[in-house]
Specification:
Layout (H helix, E strand, L loop, with lengths): L4 E5 L2 E5 L5 H8 L1 H9 L2 E4 L5 E2 L10 E6 L16
Parallel strand pairs: 1-5
Antiparallel strand pairs: 1-2, 3-4, 3-5
Length: 84
Amino acid sequence: MSDPLRAFVNAVPVSVPPGATALDAVRAWKPAEADAVSAGARLITDSRGLPIDAATPLQAGAILRTVPRRGPGADDPDPFGDSA
């Protein structure tokens, strides 16, 4: 079995198995926060502060943050217009 990946969520180190997603890392940090992301109340951002999909595969050393979903499209299930 492979070694776990180390990532950082809101500056807290977490360990997740290889193949884990950004949401898995958030869940390892704080399950209630992952539930808020799943419910659409919060977003996951990368180290630059850009929103990423919760299903993004994690890489070792990833730096993630969770932020509130804000703005006029906060209730929009597809705030970035990515769906066809």
